[in-house]
Amino acid sequence: MMEDEREEDLWDLLRQAMRLSEDDFERLKRGGLQLNYLRVCPRKLWLFAHQVRMEADAEAVALGRLTHERAYRDRPRRSLILENLIAIDVLEDEGTLLEVKHAPTFVEAARLQLRYYLYFLARRGVKRRGELRFPRQRRREVVELDAAAIAEVEAALAEAARITALPTPPAVPWTPACRRCAYAPLCWG
Ligand code: SF4
User: What residue segments make up the domains of the chain, in order of their start?
Assistant: First the structure.
């Protein structure tokens, strides 16, 4: 079988794995950081989605922004805003989606965020691979969209919608994530 045909078959399988209708996706889609927060803490997701903003002061956020700005400055990078909703970085020489993180502390959250970007693009007919990069740790990880990733993203979108529709932020127990969370004064102060 030719390489192109194999690619096309794979692409068909991915499309078939998508369970959300176009209408449901339009209703459920949201910024990528919200899916990241879903994995870190559902309360954090709720607060952020309801425009409660305390991140600007947080040291962790400032460090993350700095790492992102400084990383791979020698490579041709393009920042894209899609549908006024998600911001992605593309390494132009590879066509790879790049997600740079300051630390791998919440790596599952970062994986979900990147899988969501790949899913978002796939729904728009654009197939890409992604890479999580942790420049300070000299670590990188390839993230690709497969049937399991599609199921995870669609379940996460539904779960994020359920949580953000709650009338008040969900009560959650203290976790190590609270230690460096910008919302800690609000939750535990
Ligand atoms: S302080 Fe803890 S409970 Fe509150 S939003 Fe942050 S991670 Fe969640």
Answer: 2-188
